[in-house]
Design goal:
- The chain is of the alpha/beta class.
- Helix content is about 35%, strand content about 15%.
- The strands form 3 sheets. It has a 10-stranded mixed β-sheet, with helices on both faces. Strands 1-2 form a two-stranded parallel ribbon.
- Helix 4 runs parallel beside helix 6, helix 7 runs parallel beside helix 9 and helix 10 packs parallel to helix 11.
- The longest helix has 14 residues.
- Bound molecules: iron/sulfur cluster.
- The site of iron/sulfur cluster (SF4) has 12 residues, from loops.
């Protein structure tokens, strides 16, 4: 149970506990404090995360008296969508408003064989990576576990992904209730990446509790391979993560040596590349089958994209069983960088490929919307500043 979680989204009803962000252990402790049996935790978890219910009155297998008691002390409350942008390629970006006037971004990226939801973990970010739009907003606050899992809950609701409770669909409900897992045929969101606004490992406890819900069979039932934490490399937290919640990992490396990385990822000055890669080796020791390891490398013209850089990168990663994602830089207003030319990116990829790596050039998605992370929230903030 995470005692550090701040699960109260609503400031309008501070006395009520928001159950949206409670994982199974937390939910069991909650019901135990009420003098209820642990199976109540499973029932309520399923209603919230498999059927998308936010009203205790609809929880028909919970006694009337308990429903009333729950409604008095608790709530299921998610942020509201205040803006939606849809790109021609199917990418959807939502801006969600939190209490206190902050907003966060969540992006859904559909592909042929999967759908990925990119989730935020903080409002803004303190790490100040030079190529990042979110960094320009500075850091505001951590998201609670409820605000993190709410992004998956809201996306499932908006995409009509929760199991139906209609009479006609009773068979699906029974199957889902029996297996404890959502029917995979109806699932559109197959993968979750914590790659939106913020550094997830600097909001450790709340991120881990939300991930427990993503993996939980009585909630979303995703496998460890399908849930990825993307980090700039908070080394001590990586060690803790292996013990507590070892999902797939994406390291935002972006440079083949400390000299370049110090310039574009300032956290490198605290945790240089060797320390970071040693921590990754520890993280994956003896277990590369259940979880995936990806190196993220944004292609910045004239900064990190030379053939020498590609060879350096190949040598650097030789002990790590990783896949390398080359990401064409997505420019945003006032950014000081330009994207590498496509020929340069392809040459870089070929060098890595010849060195034995699976290197992929990530497709640019949502080009006709504000696709760079933090861009949409940044626009809203700018707009509100102008109004003030
Ligand atoms: S790239 Fe990630 S870690 Fe770096 S500033 Fe942006 S959100 Fe933060």
């Amino acid at each position: 149970m995470n005692s550090n979680s701040n699960n109260t989204i609503s400031e309008s009803s501070p006395a009520k506990i928001n159950l949206l962000g409670y994982d199974l252990a937390h939910m069991k402790a909650f019901f135990s404090e009420m003098g209820e049996k642990p199976f109540r935790a499973v029932q309520v978890l399923k209603w919230i995360h498999q059927f998308g219910v936010d009203d205790f009155a609809q929880m028909s297998n919970v006694s009337q008296a308990l429903r009333k008691k729950l409604a008095d002390i608790a709530e299921i409350k998610a942020p509201e969508i205040i803006m939606e942008q849809k790109a021609g390629d199917g990418t959807i970006k939502w801006l969600m408003r939190l209490d206190g006037g902050n907003s966060i971004e969540t992006v859904f990226i559909p592909e042929d064989n999967r759908g990925t939801l990119c989730v935020s973990s903080q409002v803004g970010c303190a790490l100040d990576c030079g190529f990042c739009s979110t960094a320009k907003q500075g850091f505001n606050r951590n998201l609670s576990s409820a605000e993190i899992i709410a992004q998956l809950w809201v996306a499932n609701r908006t995409l009509n992904q929760f199991a139906s409770r209609d009479e006609d669909d009773l068979a699906v409900e029974k199957k889902s209730a029996l297996s404890g897992v959502q029917d995979s045929k109806r699932r559109v969101i197959t993968n979750v990446v914590l790659m939106g606004m913020g550094e997830p490992l600097l909001n450790f406890d709340n991120v881990v509790e939300a991930i427990h819900l993503m993996l939980e069979d009585h909630a979303y039932g995703l496998s460890k391979r399908r849930v990825t934490i993307s980090t700039a490399g908070v080394v001590p937290a990586l060690k803790r993560l292996r013990e507590e919640c070892d999902v797939s990992l994406a390291i935002s490396l972006h440079a083949p040596n400390d000299k370049i990385r110090d310039q574009i990822v300032p956290l490198n000055k605290k945790y240089p590349i060797k320390e970071l890669l040693d921590a990754c080796q520890y993280y994956f020791k003896g277990d590369t089958k259940k979880k995936q390891f990806t190196i993220e490398y944004v292609m910045l013209a004239g900064i990190n994209d030379s053939e020498t850089n590609a060879r350096e990168l190949a040598a650097l990663l030789k002990k790590l069983p990783c896949k390398i994602n080359l990401i064409p830089f997505n420019p945003f207003p006032d950014s000081e960088f330009a994207c590498s030319k496509i020929q340069t990116i392809n040459r870089f990829k070929d060098i890595l490929y010849k060195a034995g790596y699976v290197a992929v050039v990530r497709k640019t998605r949502g080009e006709d919307i504000d696709a760079a992370c933090g861009q949409l929230a940044g626009k809203v903030i700018d707009k509100s500043r102008r109004v003030i």
